[in-house]
């Protein structure tokens, strides 16, 4: 067991099982009786908590309700057992009154002490928040649970400086963390600045799993941050992902405006995402169903609102319901399937300074999907930035020209000189998208890429925080045209 490993299983009750004590001790673990007042103090060195049912229903349920969240926030797993002197039937009945503890942090009820010991042994609680860690510049938005996650993940440090990062889309809290002082006893030197993502427990677990399953082995090491799994921590409702800070890099949008869009886009699709995009599988099937599976389409009230505006002011003819039917009637298409980033937008792409190398972050939505979905998402996010000032009528016409079907990489929307980079970027994205699109069989049906772009335009139109409303309505109108 590693130095400082958490080897104690706490027993909240009068008489700890001697059989369990033996089974734990064979695994290098220790069973320790504890009273409720001393629990919080004991958590940093513990990996598990057992609450014993001793016959009094109210007392048992109360003990669990009062303590399970705190135990989980400290990284423990929780088990409930029936004391030898209590009635097993009563114990069975009480279970329904217990709080819903996440199953992966709950030891299932059993009389098999060896199995229980095994499950505590397998549970990895990560480091405990044992010694004081001083947090500098703690952002006000952090909850007590999140502060505790920081103290656990950075238990090897004595001083940590924090800074809130802005720019995320998901509502997760992003922090830049500088370990200022590490403990002398720390057995791993880890002093590089890193980025901490704090979010809902399941979302973080999903992002870490996607990173391991899809990105770690497909995106070269210099095109993405690494995840520091030893610093990751999970609480009762939140969790923390720790990754390398992408240093000496500028956001993609800044690079596009001053550099060569074709070069950056080639670096993105031909280097950073090459490993994903080279492993394609030809498919013949429902492209729209695939886009639904990626949760691209969102038939919201906000979309109805954009559609009403589009019908009143921009010449749109059909309702969202009619477009939904049109999408449903498109039938099957030939397309290629591969690992997709799933949320390709300029906020998730950096360019390393003094180079054209692109670096990707944010793997929450990564999975298998149509190869055209990443370029479609990226071009729509470039053509339709949220929250900017309104397009002028001339700009609107030019954007509309870029989206006149059929979509091609020679499309020149003739944007103003100040917006040349936008047109060049969209052109470059389409070169990579269309190169991977099988030849269309029917000249009347929209091409797979047009369908994907239309779906991302509808997605843009479907969220009210994509301001201004007129821009959402324009996206809706263009999507309608693309779908024919
Ligand atoms: N590894 C990192 N290095 C530098 N900045 C980062 C890193 N991860 C996130 N950021 C910054 O935080 C923002 C939000 O992070 P992101 O993971 O995209 O969150 P969200 O899922 O909320 O979009 C990014 O746009 C970027 O500016
Ligand atoms: Mg993001």
- Please give the radius of gyration in angstroms: 27 Å
| Ends apart, CA distance between termini | 64 Å
CATH architecture of the largest domain: Alpha-Beta Complex
Relative strand content: 15-25%
- Which fold name is given in CATH as the topology of the largest domain? Aminoglycoside 3'-phosphotransferase, Chain: A, domain 2
What layout of secondary structure does this protein have?
Layout: E1 8-12, H1 18-25, E2 30-34, H2 39-42, E3 46-53, H3 57-73, E4 77-82, H4 88-94, E5 106-107, H5 113-122, E6 134-136, H6 144-153, E7 157-165, E8 173-182, E9 194-200, H7 201-215, E10 233-234, E11 238-244, E12 249-251, H8 252-258, H9 261-272, H10 274-277, E13 281-285, H11 287-293, H12 301-313, H13 320-328, E14 333-340, E15 349-352, E16 358-360, E17 367-370, H14 373-383, H15 393-402, H16 420-435, H17 448-461, H18 469-483
Parallel strand pairs: 1-2, 1-3, 3-4, 4-5, 6-7
Antiparallel strand pairs: 7-8, 8-9, 9-11, 10-11, 12-15, 13-14, 14-17, 15-16
Helix pairs in contact: 1-5, 9-16, 12-18, 14-16, 14-17, 17-18
Any overview of this molecule?
It is a single chain. By secondary structure, this protein is of the alpha/beta class. 39% of the residues lie in helices and 19% in strands. The protein starts with 7 loop residues before the first strand and ends with a helix. The strands form four sheets. The chain has a six-stranded mixed beta sheet with strand order 6-7-8-9-11-10. A five-stranded parallel beta sheet has the order 2-1-3-4-5. It has a three-stranded antiparallel beta sheet with strand order 12-15-16. β6 (134-136), α6 (144-153) and β7 (157-165) form a beta-alpha-beta unit. It contains 18 helices and 17 strands. It has helices spanning 18-25, 39-42, 57-73, 88-94, 113-122, 144-153, 201-215, 252-258, 261-272, 274-277, 287-293, 301-313, 320-328, 373-383, 393-402, 420-435, 448-461, 469-483, and strands at 8-12, 30-34, 46-53, 77-82, 106-107, 134-136, 157-165, 173-182, 194-200, 233-234, 238-244, 249-251, 281-285, 333-340, 349-352, 358-360, 367-370. It binds adenosine-5'-diphosphate and magnesium ion (MG). Adenosine-5'-diphosphate binds at residues 165, 167-170, 172, 174, 195, 197, 225, 243-246, 347-348, 361-362, 364.
